[in-house]
Structure formats: structure tokens, C-alpha cells
Amino acid sequence: MPRFMLGTTRVPHRKNTAGIQAVRIPAPATVTLPMSQHIGAPAEPTVKVGDAVYVGTKVGEAQGFVSSPVYSSVSGKVKKIEPYLSSNGRSCHAVVIESDGQMTPDPSIAPPVITTLDEFICAVRESGVVGLGGAGFPTAVKLEAEKKGIIKKIIINGAECEPYITSDTLTMTVDSAYVKKGVETLMSFISADETVIGIESNKPRCIDEMRRVFEGNGKVRVEALPSTYPQGAEKILIYNTTGRVVSEGGLPSDVGCLVMNVTTVAFIAKYLETGMPLVEKCITVDGSAIKNPMNVIAPIGTSIEEIIQFTGGYRADPAKVLYGGPMMGVAVYSTDYPIMKNTNAIVALSEKEAKPKEQHNCIHCGRCVSACPIGLNPTLFARAMKVGDSSERADRLTEAKIGLCIECGCCSFVCPSARPLVETNRLAKADLRNQQAKK
Amino acid sequence: MNKLVVSSSPHIRTDSTTRRIMLDVLIALLPTAVAGTVIFGIKALWVMLVCVGFSVLSEFLFNLITKHTQTVGDLSAAVTGLILALNLRADAPLWQCAVGAVFAIIVVKCLFGGLGCNFANPAVTGRIFIMICFATTVGGGMMPTVVDLASSATPLEIMKGDTVNGLPSLPDMMLGLRGGAIGEVCAIAILLGFAYLVYRGVIHFETPLIFIGTVFVLSLIISSDLTLSLYHVFSGGLLFGAVFMATDYVTTPITRSGKMIFAFGCGLITVLIRFFGTYPEGVSFSILLMNILSPYIEKWTAKKPLGGKK
After folding, report:
1. For residue A24, what are the β-bridge partners?
2. Which domain range does residue A221 map to?
3. Are residues A137 and A269 in the same domain?
4. Which of A76, A295, A377, B180 is the most buried (most CB within 10 A)?
5. CB contact under 8 A, B117 and A361
6. What is the pLDDT of residues B5-49, one digit of tens each?
7. What is the CATH T-level fold of the domain B18-298, as seen in this structure?
């Protein structure tokens, strides 16, 4: 165990929707399914315009090792296959499906038969599951580390440290049986000594429920984490639950850890039971511009606008709409964007909250240095980026360890002068990548 | 629907602002300013008004002439002006106060790029500038007007002459009934400001504590006299300097451990000057000298990041 816990920034919790049951939205008229809803190679469409599809019919095949298949989330007809510009600026194809409103499941769906590790990993890949906490990394790829026999600890991420989001909270309370099953399945295929479930202490009901379902299981430990941000960041979670340190450029498996989001684990259990791949998500809809904050279960590919209208619409004109929470979420250009596999929240902010804070010079107060959970000095990156000479700039960025920045946003959040610190770090990382590519 | 704002995360920020921090410092200085006015009379108020006025005005004009964004709204110029004033004698000629304020803002701050870009503390440097140019203004101090005191020298001057006799009593020292600069005499008022700054999270308590503690311990080691060491803590500008000048963000190391080393260095240099130097007081010089070392201390005390390879 670590001597002290990292990640001490106090961000507002705003968990308004905790404790409210999720509501399933009716079948949307159309869904847009981007072929890239994960980290890695985009999937390739396997259907043609006009094809009939059902809930759970594969519409996109995984391409390569780090990739994930995409399934239809409604029953109906393929309306079009069009180029799609994702909110991060990359482009891929998207399959647009016109729903028949029936939500008929694909008749071929059946629970997978698994007896070996290979079959288990294969099933996880075919389920289409990716890191549901928001990262979107294909889960099956993480499990491959077990083939080298190096995983000693399974860490289940139930921290949910972003403001507003409560979808993992619902998983831990409502779907606790699936979490239990998922963890037990993982432990039966992975030779880890221990599973640690990390939950922020602002969710006592989740902690109690997890302790209850795992009572008597000596290999599962439920760890109450401080209610400070960013407890759910992978490296921070690993350190705070095991004391292990993932070094620069390394992976959790290098220190014998496998980290999985709690909803991902529960989904795997559900998939093994039913065979229905990842086609719907529980999403927190909240923010100062939302009239009725609530959790909804919606087919993947439903537009943000449709989901917000289902919850009762806006309280005020939205000025900024996010995929995910306000600390690391991605702002979208338009509410026509669909929700994706890794979307766990839609946050709409009003004009007042979206207005940028007045910027001043850096006053060297050191709040960012104290806030950085990794222990970096964000002011060094900002200073390095002002250097004109590209190779000196690269040297200074490397020396200040830009590669370790996890982009959690604590530095920018605490800055009284509203300096764009983490924003600069992203620019700096891209700058460094470009320079390395040139060499 | 309106066009949506697209920007990089984070999308929420703390309520704390630079202006609020500066306002907190001004609030923390208020007890000291009031105490100074009570002890030294209305003259003290004039010194404060002139210093703050000229500080703000010179920054305003500098930004206007050099076509920079106007920054007087961040209140940092007002803070510099008030700290400078509290470092001066209440009977200082007002034109000298004005010159000092203009020097502090224009030469020490604005020419280096404004708030956050200066390497030396403007108020400290302004005080030293006045001290060197107009030796009578800072050297020594005006005697309180509220009570009659026998001696016309400041406690530090008395101690410098190796005379312990004639020092005001310790309770008088804490109340501020002694000779000195406007803001440095009333210990109780300074400590009130200190408590407020720590409560508001503007400063950490370590810097003043280590600075003052170092002076006390080293005085005790050198003199082996407990009473004399206590007088060293309460006399001169130590308390004021430790609370309001050695805690300046811009000119001290950014790391917490660096701030501690900074404070220790200040204490050490102060004692060396007080015991072995020709000047009776060393607080300002110690802070200025440590300002120069700040970037290096910052480098030496950089944290090893999680997962960083050396």
C-alpha cells in the first residue's frame, strides 16, 4: 500500500443523478454508428445500403489487433454508409441505420461457449467491448497480457471521479450481481493474486454494496479512495490501490496490473450470459443547461439531441455540450453527434459556465505544481513552448517529462490566472510527435 | 440553436482568481495599515496613499504608453504600493515615497514584463532603493505619537550598540509601541494578517514560520540570550517581511520544499547582517538576495514525477 494517496484536487462533485434509476429511451428513428468508437484501427463496414439488420447484427468488422467490431443497436435497414468526421477531428466511415421501431434482436445471438483463456479473450473481442470508463481501449487487448502470465493484480475502476457522472454508480448498485460475476469470471481465467475495487468515498452506497457482494471472497478487496480528482486516472488508481508505479511509456501490465472499468466488467458478465454484444449504454445527462438531470439507457448511435429532448430538453440555451464530464470530456460541434461505446455522460453547460475565465499572467503561485497528481511542473511546459528553436524546445519538453502528463486537467482547473496549462501540454505533445516524425 | 463553443478540456475552473488573491493580501494588510495609522498618526496614511496611488498610476501609464493590456485591475500594483508604504517611516518625505513607488513598479516589475515576470520583489527592491538614495527615510524609524518613549532609536539600533538597556518592554514590542516603519511595529496586526492569509489558502504557514524560527534559533546560538533573541524576533521588519514579502509568489520558488529552503536562507542572511553587518536591519536584503537564488532552488527541489526515469 502507498504511504500517501495521489490526486488531491477538489473539483465539485455535482452527482445530482446518483440514486435515480436509469430510464430506457424508446427506439430512435435512426442511429449513426461510427466505425471508430475505440482506440486503434477503425472497423470496416460489413453491410451494404438496404441490408436488413437486427439489434446485435455486426455492421463493422475489427481490423487488426487493436480494434473492435461494431454492432447495430436497432433493428431496421441500412440507410447509408457515409464519411464521418469524429469530434476529435479524425475521419472514418459511419453506418446509418433506419430503425423499424421493433428493436428485434438478431436471431443468431447466443451465449458464447468459453472454456479456455483464448476463447474468453475471443469472446470479449467479439462482444465489441472497449474501455467504458471513457478511454475506449479495446478490452480484449488488455487481456492478452495474461498469456505472458504477468498479471498479479486486477484493479476494478469504480472511482468515477469526474463531476456529474453517475453511470458507474448505477452499475455498482443496480448491477452489482453482474459486477460480482464479471470479477469472478476474470479471476477464473486470470491468475491474479488479488482483485482491488477502487471507489471514491463519496459513494458509500457503492462501497457497501460491493463489500456485501464480495463478502467472504478473500481475494477481493474494496478500497475506499479519497473523493478527490483524479482518482480514476489509471496510473493514479494503480498507485493508490497497490503502491505500484507505472514508469514513463510503460503499461499497467509492466507492473503486473490489469485495470478495468467497473461497467466494462459488468458488461462482460452480461455478454457471457446473453451473447448480446455492446449495443446500448447507460448515460448520465446533466449540466447547468439540462432541465431534468437523469440517467438514460440509449442505443449506441442515438443523437445527443434526441437523448436530451427525451430527458425534457434544456433549462437554458446550451453553450457547450460535452461527451463525458467537464474535466476531461470532449466538446462537440453539434448535438447531432451520436453517443458512442465509450460515452458515459452528456453534459450541457449554459452560457455562464461556458464563458472562459479572464486570463492573467502566471503569478507563479505553484497551485498547479501542488495539484499535478503526477508531480510535474506545468509552468515548465508553458515556458518551453515559448522557445522558438524547435530542437531546444523538444529538449526542454522532454526534460520536463511531458510524456508523463495524463491530461487530467487539474493544473488548468486550479490556475487562478486561468492559464491554458493542460491545453498547452496537449499542443506540446503534438509538437514533440511532429518533430520526432520528421527525424 | 446557437452555435456551440468548442474548446479543449477542462470545461470548468476554480472560482479562485488572481484578483481575489491580491484582494486577500490587501485585506490581510488592513490590520497593519490601521495599526500603523493609530500608532504614528495621520502622516502614515498619507505615505500609504501616495505609495499606492503612484504604484497604480505608474503601472496604468506604463501599459497605456507601451500599448499593453491594462493590468491595474489585477490589484497587484496596489499590493506592491501598500507593502512598500508599510516599509517606510511615517514621516518620510512624500516625494521620496512617490519616487520609490515608481521605481518599484516601472523598473522592477513592468520592464521585466509585468506581473509574474519580475525576478526581484518590487516592494523590497523599492524599499532598498529608497534606503540607499535617501538614507534618513528608512534608516531608523519614527517614534510612535500615541505614547512618549524615552529613546529615539529603534530597538535594532539599540541592540546594535550592544546596549540591551533602553529597549521597550516585550508587550510594548508586540503592540507596536516602538520606533520603526509604519507596518513593521505592530506584531499583533501582522499575525492577524498572517492567520487570514493561511485561512484563505493564499500562503502556506511554513515560510514565515521557518524564516522567523531561523532568526530566533540562530540569534540564540550566537548570543545565548533568550530575551535578546525574542527581541530579535519582534524587532525590525522581520515579522512583516516574513509574512508579506518572503511569501510573494512571483519571486520565491514554486515548489513547497523550495519555499522552505528560501525561508531558511532569508533567516540566515538576516541574522548575519544583524549581528555582523554594518546595517542594523537585514530582512529586506535577505529577501532580495534569496530572490536571486530562487530559480536555482526551484530546480534543485523539483519533485521526481510518478514514473519518471532519471
Report:
1. A297
2. 117-274
3. yes
4. B180
5. yes
6. 999 999 999 999 999 999 999 999 999 999 999 999 999 999 999
7. Ammonium transporter fold (1.10.3430)
